[in-house]
Specification:
about 250 residues, alpha+beta, Ubiquitin-like (UB roll), Fumarate Reductase Iron-sulfur Protein, Chain B, domain 2, five-stranded mixed sheet, two-stranded antiparallel ribbon, 9 helices, binds iron/sulfur cluster
Length: about 250
């Protein structure tokens, strides 16, 4: 496939240097089957080595290259040029995260929220060393979630400024309820906190953007259903497996 000229319009921000943020255009030459990340690499190598973005695995496993592509959160490494409309690609940092510089955001609040929910749920004695190396169980807490932050970036509840636990955390809580019945009670208490499932307004934006098909909104719906069951102390594990976006 032959390459053609595309404009990358990137929201630049460098504290103290490019401040307030402003858009900067870069002309890149990309074939339709190349990705947004390919374009960013081209810019950094050939035009502006100061451009800030994160990347690591290049195949949707690490979640580090998440940014806002033409107005919605996505992974730069799997967003193909052929799937974007027009000759201008607008790139901005993820919403609902503090920007450190250009497309790099501060993920500390995301990980802090995750860790706060898990430190008392999965003690080390719960690990199963006969099947997995010590500690690996804790890393498997989210199943398919790559902790990219896309769902949090597009969540209108989080955007409104309230202290919402967020779709990624709640999806993980739901997942744990299914996988660890012994922890069901404490997980149910976590989900039922004032900043938990009750705050979700079913916008479904999280499920639409999730690059790993975690479908956080489906997990939140499962938690809400489980919370309405009479047996609150031992909430039934979520069972929904439907393939719709919720
Ligand atoms: Fe990313 Fe999906 Fe995990 Fe949210 S649930 S952090 S969108 S992989």
């Amino acid at each position: 496939m032959s390459a053609h000229q595309i404009t990358f319009r990137i929201l630049r921000f460098k504290p103290g240097r490019i401040d307030p943020p402003r858009y900067q255009d870069f002309a890149v030459s990309l074939a339709p089957d190349m990705t947004v990340l390919d374009g960013l690499e081209q810019i950094r190598l050939d035009q502006d080595s100061s451009l800030m973005y994160r990347r690591c695995c290049h195949h949707a496993s690490c979640g580090t290259c998440a940014c806002t592509v033409n107005g919605t959160a996505a992974l730069a490494c799997t967003t193909r040029i052929a799937d974007l409309e027009g000759e201008v690609v607008t790139l901005e940092p993820l919403d609902n995260h503090a920007c450190i510089g250009d497309l790099v955001v501060d993920m500390r609040s995301f990980f802090r929220e995750m860790d706060a929910r898990w430190s008392n749920v999965l003690p080390c004695k719960d690990a199963t060393p006969d099947r997995t190396p010590q500690g690996v169980d804790q890393l498997m807490r989210l199943e398919n979630c790559i902790e990219c932050g896309c769902c949090v970036a597009v969540c209108p509840v989080t955007s409104s400024g309230v202290a919402f636990m967020g779709p990624a955390v709640l999806a993980a809580v739901s997942n744990e309820m299914r996988n660890r019945p012994a922890h069901r009670k404490i997980l149910a208490q976590i989900a039922a906190q004032p900043n938990g499932v009750a705050m979700c307004r079913r916008h479904l934006a999280c499920s639409r953007v999730c690059p790993s098909k975690v479908y956080p909104a489906r997990h939140i719906a499962d938690l809400q259903r489980a919370g309405r069951l009479p047996n609150q102390s031992g909430m039934a594990p979520p069972t929904s497996k439907k393939k719709s976006l919720d």
